[in-house]
Every structure is written in C-alpha cells, then in structure tokens.
Design goal:
It holds the Pfam family PTR2. This protein is mainly α. It has 17 helices and four strands. The strands form two sheets. A two-stranded parallel ribbon has the order 1-4. A two-stranded antiparallel ribbon has the order 2-3.
C-alpha cells in the first residue's frame, strides 16, 4: 500500500512537473515530449522487473530483493524532493524505476507463494491484494496533489518519500512471517558463473551510457527505444524459457499459452496507462474540475480509479470465489477487458462537442476502465503464476510485467498522436483496435484451453 502511495503520489505530479512553466514550479518542457517521457519512464519501471526477477530467482530470493528495492524507491523520492531541476528528475526517476521494478514482480511472487496452483481462491486473493495496493494509489495523489498546489512540487515529492519510509518500517516488522520459500532462489546461479554475469551487467551499463552520450538515444526517441527493447527482451525471454531443459513438455505448452495473454495485456495497458499521459493533460486542460466555487487539482483525477478499485475489488473477489470452477476462463476475462476499455475510449467521441468535459462524464469512463482492469490485471498476475514453469516462477511474472512495460511505453508514444481538433480518429483507432483484439481473444478460448490443460 505505501509503495503505491509513494509511486502514484509522484506519478500523479510527474507530467505536470515536466511541462508546467518554470514560474509555476515546473521544468518548462514541451508538453508532447513530457507525455512521451512519462510513458517511457513507466515502461522503464516495468522493464526493470527483469532485473528484479533475475536477482530473485538466481541470487537472493523474492523477499530480500523486495526489501532492498523499497529502499531504492525511498531514495529516489528523496532525490526528486531535494535535488534541483533535471538532476533531481534523472536521479530520482532512475532510482524509483529500478526499485519499483525490483519490488513489483517479487511482491506478486510472494502473494503467489501463499496459494497452490490449483487453489480456486488465488484469483480472489490477488483481487484483495490489488485492493490494498489501490488504497495507496488513492491516498498518494490526493495528498501529494494538495501539497503541490499549496506548497510546490518538491514538497509533494517529499510526501511520497515519507510514505515509502512508513511502508519500509511496517514491512521490516512483519517480513519474518512470510514463507521461507520467498528467501530461497528458485534457480540458484552457480558460483562459477557469477563473474561472467558481473561483466555482462557492467557492459550493459556502459552501453546505456554510451547510447545517451552519443545521442543515439535522446529524450525525443526514448519511448520508442524502450518499446523496441521490451519487445526484444520479451522474445529472448520466451525463447530461453521454451528452450530450457528445466521445462517439461506440459510446462512448455503452458508457456506457449501465455503468449496471447502477453499480447492482450500489452494492448490493454497501452490504453489504460494513458491516464498518466493523454488523460493527465486532458484533465488539466479540457476537464471542468469545479465543485461549486472550488477547483479540484488535476492530479486528483488519478485517484478516481483507485476509489473504484477499492469499492469493486472485493465484489469481484467474492464473485470469483462464489463461482469457483464455474467462473469464466482467463481468456474470456481478458477478451472482455479489452472490449470494455475499448468502449471507454470510444465514449470520448461525443464529449468532443463540449467546451469543457463534465467531471461526471470522465468519472464514468474511468469506471469502465476500472472494470476492465479488474478483469485483466489481478487475473493476469494470477495466470502468470499458474502457467509458470517451476524453474522460472518469478521470471514468468516478470514477463507479465514486460507486457505492462510495453503497453505503458506505448501509452506515451500514442499520446503524441492526440491533437485537439482531430480527436475522433484517435479515439476510434484506440478504442476500435482494443475491441477487435478482445473479440479475437475470446474466440481463441478453445485453442488456449488445449494448451493450458487443467489450468482454468
């Protein structure tokens, strides 16, 4: 909860901090570039789950990686709060991205370790976990947004750091109660191979620095570069798992079955994560945020989705528990999710006739996005744990987060195509594509059933 408090508290301010003028406390960046960089940053967060998952599976176990990742997140928020200008932005975002990547996959792995693969309560358990996450997602933007309006951006970032410190203290007191399996690498790296991987890591860091120094990678093409890296990393990851001698024939079929879920997840997040790119700018400039004589901070729109998650996550969890083995297959949930989020974007079309969009209209759109999220995100995390080969538990979850990385990065790339006065083609393209993919996902259910075997 506190990690999400700090992350979304900072994320809710990030686009505005980048494109607001210097006189308003921002960096004065071009708005299109700022939205692209927000997407790129979000993609980098989920891309770094690869590193977190590898460290967990090969060296330290999920629990230890999670703990030290949380420390990195706290230091990143402190950097954003205390360091000035672009220096604070770069240092802070790099630390938060690496820390969040290490925390995400390992938190999910620890939740998954509480259930057996055939336990019908697993989807309900992840839905409750998701509700706790979104309590933090609700409170973070409310507090940091209010502090930003009243005292400035850096005080808002400082509140995110305090939230992460509270979370660390609570976790430190309770971490011994987690299963022992969380402290043991599932696929330990032999000591003889460690020097080779140190060389690889150093080479990757040097390559990244060289790419920026030579301007092969620039702020303008960072989002598309990360998208290409994520696609390449995903292909390599799937190939390594499918070719591994530690994966048996049944597990290999299940990995093949996971590929359509990866694609569906990436498509969903490309739309959903636009709440931090296109919808953030839309809320700032096009939304009527007045409640009587008081105007709501634009970052508070970020808290609307967590409110709905808190209300409906328990309902969805109870529904899946009540239905048990009779609940829809995961592919049907994924397909319906894509149809619903596509419909949400299509509903922006009639709003273009308004000078200012009514707040209630955007709330309704975000409610649909919430229903879509609950059909896909906790369910996607659960299916990643259920389809994962024994030797690649956390790394399979990292693959799911790679799909989120790709979608989040694309949310920044796609937001660059939105222009006032030419909105309808944008919404038709976004929403229509999602609806078509959702229908295709549901139609693929019989084929996926054969590959997944006994896994529902």
């Amino acid at each position: 909860m506190w990690e999400r408090f700090s992350f979304y508290g900072m994320q809710g301010l990030l686009a505005y901090y980048m494109y607001y003028s210097v006189t308003d406390g921002g960096l004065g960046m071009d708005q299109g570039l700022a939205l692209s960089l927000v997407g790129a940053y979000g993609g980098a967060v989920y891309l770094s789950t690869i590193l977190g998952a590898w460290l967990s599976d090969r060296l330290f176990g999920s629990e230890r990686v999670l703990f030290f990742s949380a420390i990195a997140i706290m230091l990143g928020h402190i950097g954003l709060a205390l360091l000035p200008g672009y220096v604070g932005l770069v240092v802070g975002l790099v630390l938060v991205a690496i820390g969040s990547g290490g925390l995400k996959a390992n938190a999910v792995a620890l939740v998954g370790s509480l259930y057996s693969k055939d336990d019908p309560r697993i989807d309900a358990g992840f839905s409750l976990f998701y509700m706790g996450v979104n309590i933090g997602g609700l409170l973070g933007p409310l507090l940091t947004g209010w502090l930003q309006v009243k005292y400035g951006f850096h005080i808002g970032f400082a509140a995110a750091a305090v939230g992460m410190a509270i979370g660390l203290a609570i976790y430190a007191m309770g971490r011994k109660k987690l299963p022992e399996s969380g402290r043991i690498p599932s696929n330990p790296l032999p000591a003889a191979e460690r020097n080779r991987y140190v060389v690889i890591f150093v080479a990757v860091i040097v390559l990244i620095i060289a790419a920026f120094a030579s301007k092969i990678v620039t702020p303008q093409n960072l989002a598309s570069t990360i998208a290409y890296v994520v696609i390449a990393a995903s292909i390599v990851y799937f190939a390594l798992i499918l070719r591994s001698k530690k994966v048996n024939a049944t597990e290999r079929k299940q990995v093949w079955a996971f590929i359509p879920f990866y694609i569906g997840s990436a498509a969903f997040w490309a739309l959903f994560q636009q709440q931090f790119t296109f919808i953030a700018a839309y809320s700032d400039q096009r939304l009527d945020r007045h409640l009587g004589s008081w105007e709501m901070p634009p970052s508070w729109v970020t808290s609307i989705n967590p409110v709905f998650i808190i209300i409906f996550a328990g309902i969805f969890a109870a529904l899946w528990t009540k239905l048990g083995k009779r609940q829809p297959r995961t592919s049907m949930k994924f397909g319906l999710s894509l149809v619903v989020v596509g419909a949400a974007f299509l509903l922006f079309i009639p709003l273009e006739s308004f000078v200012k969009t009514p707040l209630l209209a955007l709330v309704g759109i975000l409610l649909l996005c919430t229903f879509a999220e609950l059909l896909l995100s906790p369910v996607g995390q659960a299916i990643a744990t259920k389809l994962a080969p024994a030797a690649f538990g956390t790394q399979m979850i990292a693959l799911f987060f790679l799909s989120v990385s790709l979608g989040t990065t694309l949310s920044g790339v796609l937001a660059g195509y939105y222009t006032e006065g030419n909105e309808i083609p944008y919404f038709i393209g976004m929403g229509g594509t999602a609806v078509v993919l959702g229908i295709a996902m549901m139609a693929a259910t019989p084929a996926l059933k054969k590959l997944m075997g006994s896994i529902h």
